[in-house]
Amino acid sequence: MTPLQAVWMALLQGATELFPISSLGHAVIVPAVLGWKIDQRAPGFLPFLVVLHLGTAAALLLYFWRDWFGLAKAALGFGPRHEILENRRLLGLIAVATVPAAILGFAAERMLQQLFADPTLAALFLMVNGAVLFASERMKRRGSHALSALTWRGALAIGLSQSFALIPGISRSGMTMVGGVLAGLHHKDAARFSFLIATPIIGGAGVLEVPKLLTHPNSNFGYTMWLAGLIAAVTAYVSTAFLMHYFRGHDFDALDPFAYYCLGAGALSVIWLLS
C-alpha cells in the first residue's frame, strides 16, 4: 500500500465508519474497484484497519466527552444520586450491548480475515445492509422514546444486531441504529447509543491488534499507518457532528437515504467486479 492509498483509505474510513454504510465493506470494495494492488490477506492489512478504527474511537471520545465524563463520575460515585443512578444504568446498558459482538469477534477472527479478501461478497452484503436499513424504517414502532427508557432486553438486542457487522458490507453503526429503532428509540437516541457502544468494541480490537503494528518490519509503513489514523480521526469527528445534527432533525424514514446508497453502490460494485 502506498502512502497516498493509505491517506485515501483513512478519509474513506473516517467518512463511512459512523454513517450506516459499512466502512469495512468500503475498505474491501474500493481498492478492488480502483484496481489497487493491496494484499488484503497480508498480516498488516487488518491491523492497518484497526489503526483507522482507533482514530475513529478517539473522535468519538472527543465528541461525546461529556457523556463519558458523566459515566466515569457515576462509576466512581461522584455527583447527585439521581445522576449516578441514571449514568450507572446507561453504563450497564453499554456493557450489555457490547458483550455479544466482543465474544463473537474474538472467536471468529480467522474466518473474518478470509472474508476481508472477497470484495464481491462484501458488495453483496452491502446490498443486504441497505435492505435491512430500508426494512427497519417500515417496521419501527410508533411513539418512539428517549434513551432513558431503553430496557436491558433492548440493549441486548442492539448488541446482537451489532454482531452482524463483523461481516464486511454490514455496517456496525447501521445495525445498532436499526436495533435501537426497532427497540423503540428515536433516531437521534439510537445514533447516540450506537456511537457510545462503538468505543469499547473498537478499543478491544486495538488491544488485540496494535502490538502487531509496533513490531511491523517496515517502520515507514508504520508511520504511514499512524498518520492515516489521525486523518481518520478528524474525518470521523466531522462525520459524527453531521450525523447527530441530521438525526436531530429527521425522525421519519431517516435511514432511507443510506439504504438507497447501499443498494445502489453494492449493485454497481458487483456488476463492475464480475465484469
Q: What does this entry look like structurally?
A:
The chain has helices spanning 3-16, 23-34, 45-63, 65-76, 81-107, 109-115, 119-139, 152-163, 172-182, 187-214, 219-249, 256-274. With 275 residues, it is mainly α. It has one domain (3-34, 64-274). The model has no long low-confidence stretch (mean pLDDT 85). The protein has twelve helices and no strands. Helix 5 packs across helix 10 (187-214) and helix 10 (187-214) runs antiparallel to helix 11 (219-249).
Helix content: over 70%
Classification by helices and strands: mainly alpha
Largest sheet: none
- Total beta-strand segments: 0
Kindly list the characteristics that best describe this protein.
77% helix; single chain; mainly alpha; globular
